[in-house]
Amino acid sequence: MVRRSTEDPAATHPARVSPQGMGVVRCRTATTATRLLARGRPGREAVKRPVASRAFDAIQLPAGFWERSDTREALRTRDVGMLFRLVSRYAGASQTRIGVTSGIPQGKVSEIMKGKRRVESFAVLGRIADGLDMPDRARAEFGLASRVVPQSSASTGPGYQDIDTGVLVAELADSSVSDEVIGRLSTATASLAEAHTQAPATRVLAQVLRLHREIQTLLRCRQRLSQKRELFRIESELLAHACLLFGDLKQDYRAEKCGAAALEYAREAGTNQALAWTALAKTLRWEERLVESADVARKGFECSPHAPVRIQLASQEANAAALLGDCGRAREALKRAEHAAETVPDDSGMSAWSFPVARQALFALSVAAGTGDPQTALRAASTAEAEWRSGGPRVRATWAQVRMGAGIAHLMNGSLDEVVEEVTPVLTLPPELRVATVTAYVDRLDRSLGRNQFRGSKMVLELRKGLREFSARAVSTGWHPETE
Less CB within 10 Å around the terminal CB: N or C of the chain? Predict the structure, then answer.
């Protein structure tokens, strides 16, 4: 008779029915048996051999297991760790036995059951379902296709299969995500885009990332195909918006990652990719990758809908080309932007994706300054001011960029007094609104003043000091996100 230690293995190992049907026995795992063998304790072979054999037997689940509420919850959320724990609890299956059944190493099974590892691969999910002999209803809840069993009958004739259409319909209709939740996320995404021009970038970004995390959680659940595509569309818009915001905070690496991901989600959703392209074009522009920025903007323009973003994409191509020194391409792209503006309907003018008259004028100003035409640049600045006076949407960041751009144009004309008059009001802009697109104009003017014939004057020295203090206190200076 084998002596028990003071620590009863039954406390850690579940009961099993003996193969001979003689009642309940307690079994150690193969690892424990091997350890006992090494120590030379009696009874070792009687423990080791049956366990090694049973590791390859099919797991026998009790009746009603797949109808249990906790099992169905694990299936709906694809929580494989929870499913394995339930299998272990109600079938007495060890981690080794579960691993053999599902084709997963025991060490990984342990990590999955402890919540340290998630199973995302459909191939692995399929192996788990097959190994546990999961019925079709459970497979549908697990997000997998049912297994159709061929049956011949007199009514259908030979060579045909009876298909359980009820299961197929259940797969299409089954979802753990409500349409109301998806609708709320879509509305919130649009509202955040509208808040882009009114609230500090850090606050908007925090809300964008919160929605992004919520959508990623929902995507791990069971949805209908139409719901998944809609979640992908919303996620694409959120990531494109995050790309803009990270760029405003001088986090270009994160911005580019978000822009690329936004593009992939848009492709998978089968929705328009223009928002992702415009966000990427902006990021590449601020990274001084001007050729890539112009090419990306052109790609976006070619697939863009009849919306304000179409004007923006053509303007982005013109701006990148002008900075590159390709004046011909810049003028041609600007003409396309002007042509699109004639037919594109207006929107609120306040969204991250809006492109009202003042923003159009800002890009025209930048192109003119980049091609050495200060007079055209100043006319563009006047167009923006006239739009604001007539009641057009006024975005403070756009206003600041127009004033700084006009200051650069006045400096090109050699009018220092006009430079000071244009830019001094901008220096009072609150730090939380001093995003990278604004400080880029400030830094450009500072560099131009250093190269100008007035660089030794007291007025220039004071102005450059103010410009540098402005940038030093900007929200993007030294900012780091709490999370990726």
Answer: N
What single DSSP character describes residue 406? H
- Per-position DSSP letters for 192-248, written without gaps between them: HHHHTTTS-HHHHHHHHHHHHHHHHHHHTS---HHHHHHHHHHHHHHHHHHHHHHHH
- Spatial contact of 396 and 426, defined as CB atoms under 8 Å apart: no
Query: Both tokens of residue 360?
Result: 């159009």
Q: Which tens digits make up the pLDDT trace of 84-135?
A: 999 999 999 999 889 888 888 888 999 999 998 888 787 788 889 888 989 9
| Residue pair 347/392 in contact by the 8 Å Cβ criterion | no
Contact 35, 12 (CB under 8 A): no
Backbone φ and ψ for 24, nearest 5 degrees, come out as: -95, 135
pLDDT tens for 181-227 read 999 999 999 999 999 999 999 999 999 999 999 999 999 888 888 89
The length of the chain, given as a count of residues: 484
Percentage of the chain with pLDDT > 90? 63
Residue 177 is classified by DSSP as S
Q: Which residues contact 464 (CB under 8 A, 6 or more apart)?
A: 446, 449, 450
3-state secondary structure of 24: strand
d(CA 329, CA 322): 8
How far is it, in rounded angstroms, from Cα 210 to Cα 213? 5
Per-residue pLDDT band at 3 (split at 50, 70, 90): very low
Report pLDDT digits (tens) over 17-70.
333 333 333 333 334 333 433 444 444 443 333 343 355 677 889 989 999 999
d(CA 59, CA 93): 7
Whole-structure pTM value:
0.66
Residue pair 48/34 in contact by the 8 Å Cβ criterion: yes
Predicted pLDDT at 278: 98
Task: Output DSSP code: residue 14.
Answer: -
- Highest mean predicted confidence (pLDDT) among 47-51, 437-441, 451-455, 476-480: 437-441
Q: Rounded to whole angstroms, how far apart are CA atoms 12 and 92? A: 11
Which residues, other chains included, contact 56 with Cβ-Cβ below 8 Å and sequence gap of 6+? 100
DSSP string, 43-102: THHHHHHHHHHHTTSPP-PPTTGGGSHHHHHHHHTT-HHHHHHHHHHHH---HHHHHHHH
Please check whether residue 422 is in contact with residue 406, taking contact to mean a CB–CB distance below 8 angstroms: yes
CB 258 within 8 A of CB 247: no
Q: Which two tokens stand for residue 340?
A: 């699109």
**Residue of 219, 223, 316, 224 lying closest to 261 (CA atoms):** 219
What sign results for the dihedral spanned by CA atoms 432, 438, 444, 448? negative
Estimate to the nearest angstrom the gap between the alpha carbon of 470 and the chain centroid: 32
